[in-house]
Amino acid sequence: MKIMKAFKAIGVSALMAGAILVPTTAAHAYPASCSDLYRDNAYWYNCTKGTGSFQAVVRCYRIGHSTYTIRYGGWKGIGAGPSIAQCLSNEETSSGYGVHRG
Hints:
This protein is mainly β and 102 residues long. The chain has one domain. It is built from 2 helices and 8 strands. The longest helix is centred in the first third of the chain and has 9 residues, at 2-10. The chain is elongated, with a radius of gyration of 13 Å.
C-alpha cells in the first residue's frame, strides 16, 4: 500500500514521462525498472528488473459523461511482458498507474 500512495503522490505527469524507478529495500524487493505508455485505448505497464509482480490500472471515461470506470490489467511477473488495462470502445483512457506486490 505504501507504493500505491507513492505512485499517487508522484502523479500522472511522472508516469507519462516514461519510466519510474522504485527503490528496493530488504523488506520490500519491488521492481526497480518499470515503464508505461498509453496505446490503442489502453494503458500498458511493464517491469523488467526486480522481484514480485505488477498490474496496470487505468481510469476509463465514457465519451460524453463525467463518470469513469477503473479497469485492471492482469498480474504479471517481472520480465513476463506488459500488463495491459484496456478501456472499452466507447471509453477514453485517462490516468493510469502500476500496482506492485512482493
